[in-house]
Each structure stands twice: as structure tokens, then as C-alpha cells.
Amino acid sequence: METSVVIVDDDPIVLKRAWSVLNDEGIKSVVIKSGAQLFEYLDNNPAPNLILLDIRMPDMDGFAVLKELRKRQKGINEIPVIFLTAEEDEETETKGLLLGAMDFIRKPFIPSILVLRVKNAIELVSLQRDLNREVKLKTYENEQLFIQVVSSLAAAIDAKDTYTNGHSGRVAEYSKEIARRYGYNESKQDSIYMMGLLHDVGKIGVPDAVINKPDRLTDEEFALIKVHPEIGGRILENIKNMPELSMGARWHHERYDGTGYPDGLKGEDIPEQARIIAIADAYDAMTSNRSYRKYMPQDKVRAEIERCKGSQFDPVFADILLEMIDDDKDYLMREIKDE
């Protein structure tokens, strides 16, 4: 890719000299006389590798130009700026650096110094961007690996229960959609998806015979089932980089009216993500096949969500789920097996 530099200065002598010096070194340069012309140029041309910017210009000085430039770019692939200035006071330099200038070149400039500063600045920015791309790539690869591990663990948890098929994955999907409609950004949506995948991890500590018992559970057996949120919370709280994971596991059986378990939390004392996962979990339980029944008809599921709004479920998230049900005209939001 060809290197390009935009030189902004109201002095035609400076423009001509800088243009000549840089072009003699094979650095393509464009000369511009004002800040307004610079923004017009940037709107209609590829971003340059570097901007050389005079400070003292009429109408819009270099400080104002840089401030507006950073505002427009908002930290995304910022074009590096080096100020051209005849001033040498500390206040000017400090102000420029605080605004995001990369360096200063004194006028009148020495041609060899100008060329070295420009080449070094462009090379440094290029190296930084290459490094950022590599870091993003490695971060993405690590995230994908983590998702695969979590998905495998969720599948192993679901496999303990003969009567569920993909339960954790569906709860994760429903939770993410509720969160999206509620206004979570993509990062928080991804986080609650992970929480949904792992919400039943505590079932690892419950005997298979209890989980898969087709008959009514005894009080002792139900007590074992009720321990799984605490087990899951303890397992996931050890993941220090994602402390929020444990919330969905520990509190997805809490109820909005305070009658849930394991801690009897009430209302907004229950973490928001856990309230979302709780209603997604209950919805999937109603819309999945069990040993003693098929999935419930959609109208009955809707009526149950409506009935439990404000008691078992946070009314805000219940209303969002009701909207999702109403949008699901073909009743695809359920466990689907070969029928």
C-alpha cells in the first residue's frame, strides 16, 4: 500500500517545501490550506498514513482541527497527527499531546529531520496496528476455544438427563434473545449466553438416578435436586476472569416473590441476568418433552407465563418473553424432535 501524508498549513511556502522534500523521498503528499479543506478531503478520499498539521491557522487552528478529527474518528483507526509549529513553549506542546498529537516538528524544519520523523511515525503506527490485529485474532481464537469447551460441558450436563435434549443450549439462546430485546449490548448478550449454557452445571453433583427418576421424587430426592444451584455456583465462582458466570448457576431457581431457592432472594435482589435465565429455563421446561408428557401447547405456556408474572418471574422479562411467544407464529421456540 502506498504511503501518503497530508500537509495542512496556511503558508504556501511551507506547503511547497514540505511537499517537495517528502515526494523526493517517495512519500506521496497532498497539500491543504485549512482545517475545513482537510475534512472535505477526508470525506472523499482514503485515510492518509499521517497528517502534518500547522497550529496557527485562521478560522480553525490546529488544536481545533485535531479535536474535531478525534471526535469524528472516536478511537477507531485514528490517523496519527504531527504538529508543525514555530512555537517552543511547554504549554503548547502539552496541550497538543493531551489532544492526541503524536509528535512536534519545529519550523523552519530541517528536511532530513522531517523525513526521519515522518517515516518513523508511519512505521510505528503500522507496527501498532499489526500488533492490535494479532491481539484481536488471538483473543477471538481464545474466545472460540472457550465457547467450544463450555458447549461441550453443557452437552455433558444435558446428557445426564435422559429427558432433556439440548436444554442448556436453548436456555442460552432464549436468555440471549431476552437480553437483546431488553437492550443489552453484544458483549453482555454473549456473557448471558455463556451463563445460560452453564446454568445447570451443578447437576454434575446430583446422582443420575435422581435426575432420571420417572416417578415422583421423595422429599429426600428433591432435596438433592435443590442443591444443584449451590454446587454450580461454587464450581463457577472459581473462574475469576468471568465472575458473572456463577450468578446464573446459583440463582436461576430464585423466584421474584422471594419463595425460590437456594437463598430466597426477592425482586431486584436477584441479579438481573439470573432473573432472565430463570424465565428462560422455566419456558424451556414447559416447551420440552418429558417422560410423563409431551411439550405443552403454546397457548398454555403463554397463559402460565402470564399467570406467574410478578410472582415467579420478573414482570419486565416476562413481558419480553410474551412478546417472543407472540412473534413465534409457528411455535418453533421449543424442543423439536422427529415427530
CATH architectural arrangement of the largest domain: Orthogonal Bundle
**Most strands sheet:** 5 strands, parallel
CATH topology of the largest domain, anyone? Hypothetical protein af1432
What is the count of DSSP helices, taking H or I runs of 4+ residues? Answer: 14
CATH superfamily label of the largest domain: Hypothetical protein af1432
Computed structural class: alpha/beta
Computed over alpha carbons, the radius of gyration is: 30 Å
Q: Portion of residues in helices?
A: 55-70%
Structure explained in plain terms:
56% of the residues lie in helices and 7% in strands. The protein has 2 domains: 4-133, Rossmann fold, CATH 3.40.50.2300; 160-327, Orthogonal Bundle (Hypothetical protein af1432). Strand 3, helix 3 and strand 4 form a beta-alpha-beta unit. The chain is α/β, with parallel strands linked by helices and 339 residues long. The model has no long low-confidence stretch (mean pLDDT 88). The protein has helices spanning 12-24, 35-44, 62-73, 90-99, 111-159, 167-182, 186-197, 208-211, 219-226, 228-236, 245-251, 272-286, 298-308, 315-327, and strands at residues 4-8, 28-32, 50-54, 81-85, 103-106.
